[in-house]
Every structure is written in structure tokens, then in C-alpha cells.
Amino acid sequence: MLGRVNHVAIAVPDLEAAAASYRGTLGASVTEPQALPEHGVTVAFVTLPNTKVELLEPLGDASPIAAFLEKSPSGGMHHICYEVEDIVAARDRLLQAGARVLGDGNPKIGAHGKPVLFLHPKDFQGTLIELEEV
Amino acid sequence: MLGRVNHVAIAVPDLEAAAASYRGTLGASVTEPQALPEHGVTVAFVTLPNTKVELLEPLGDASPIAAFLEKSPSGGMHHICYEVEDIVAARDRLLQAGARVLGDGNPKIGAHGKPVLFLHPKDFQGTLIELEEV
């Protein structure tokens, strides 16, 4: 079921500083920051040969990463996103196996314009998993 | 400088249970567990089309992931490993930029038999970064 790792997301308190550190200190290519008010984040991507790292900064009052950064103010690895071919089939398989899908269980349109679901970290060794249909 | 994401490492309290969950619930291919006493971990890899996820269970009394699991008993994302072409050149560039390399600053032979270095999470938004020469 799991396909490629689409991205690894890192929550950061200061996107400009994080992008500068990946560009300058680590010598990576980083896209320009993009504000996504409907998702409560500003994002920039570290582009790597085989996948990407998504740097996420909270945007607005109800950012989904605000609680994470309250607990870890300097930031940290937030989730890992895997590609799946059919997100409804994936969801049904997960529910049948007893795994919990966050929210109302229906795929939403994610930050990349594709249908996504998030799985409960307690069912996967403390790791927040996003599935994205590609 | 940063090349491919070689792996994303997840610390888990029970490797057998974690492997079963990635195999069964998530439908991924997982290698057989391998004990690496000299590194204080038992590892299994979730093999994905573009990279891998390294599941790490503590082994022995002085495991480098013991403290992490004390803080997060159910597990969690532990580090991300990027490939570099020349680890000594990478190290020198990082030190010049003011970043901290863990340990004595010299590359060690890592769990995959290749020279590796770890960078201080405080210099990279709370993310523990491993560099591996390939």
C-alpha cells in the first residue's frame, strides 16, 4: 500500500531562519515560502534528489502545528507523508485493521492540492503519518 | 551539499510490533530485524520506492535511543539521514558555519558500515540530522 515518501515535514518557529540554515549551512535548494492560510501554515520545501523536506511555520490563530511548537518551541520532525494510489481504499484497509484516521475519516484536500488523510500517531509508534493520493 | 534522504529513523519500543504494523496495517515491505550490539540498537528497514524508514529498538544497557524512548515511551521520529559525497568536507563546512557536530567531530562507522556524523538538533530546528558518506 505505501508508496514513495512524498515528504518529511519539520515544524519550525521561524521559516526564514530555517530556510537560510538549509540553504547556507547545509547547502540545499529551498523553495520560496508560500503562505497557505486555509491550512494555517507557511511552507517552503527543501528539494532533494529523491524526496523533499517540508518546512512548516504556523500561520494565523488556529494553526494545526501550534500545539506541537508549544511543546517543542525550537521545532522538530512533525510528520511523514507517504504516497498511496487510492486513498479511499487505503482508508478502508486501515479502518478494517483497527487504525484510527484523524478527523471525520474522509480525505481532505491537502497543502499540495491532493486528497490526504492523517493517521493517529498512537497507532504507529508515536509517528504522525499522512497519506496522499498521487 | 545534501544529497538523497538515505533514511528516516523512527525509535520504537517494540520492533516486532512495529514491523508487524508496517507490514500488515500499512502494507509495506519490512526487512528482518538485525541486532547491532556495537551500535546499541536492533534495526529493521521499511523499504519504500525512493528511500527507507529505519525502525530502531534499543539494545543493551547504553543504547543511544534509550533517553529518547524514556521521554517518548511510545516512540517517535528520531532522526533524518542525508547522503553526502565527502563527509570530511561536509564536516568542515558545517564547523565553519558555526554548526555543532556531535561527539569528537570525527566521522564514525555507522550502522550501515559507512562513515557518519550527527549534527546538534539545536542548530537545525530541533531535528537530529545524520550525514552519511556514500
UniProtKB/TrEMBL annotation, chains A, B:
Keywords: Cobalt, Isomerase, Metal-binding. Its EC number is 5.1.99.1. NCBIfam families: metmalonyl_epim. It is an enzyme of class 5 (isomerase). Belongs to the methylmalonyl-CoA epimerase family. This is methylmalonyl-CoA epimerase. InterPro entries: Glyas_Bleomycin-R_OHBP_Dase, MeMalonyl-CoA_epimerase, MMCE/EMCE_epimerase, VOC_core. It comes from the Bacteria. It catalyses: (R)-methylmalonyl-CoA = (S)-methylmalonyl-CoA. Signal peptide: none annotated. SUPFAM superfamilies: Glyoxalase/Bleomycin resistance protein/Dihydroxybiphenyl dioxygenase (SSF54593). GO terms for molecular function: metal ion binding; methylmalonyl-CoA epimerase activity. It holds the Pfam family Glyoxalase_4. CDD domains: MMCE. GO terms for biological process: L-methylmalonyl-CoA metabolic process. Gene3D superfamilies: 2,3-Dihydroxybiphenyl 1,2-Dioxygenase, domain 1 (3.10.180.10). Residues 4-134 form the VOC domain.
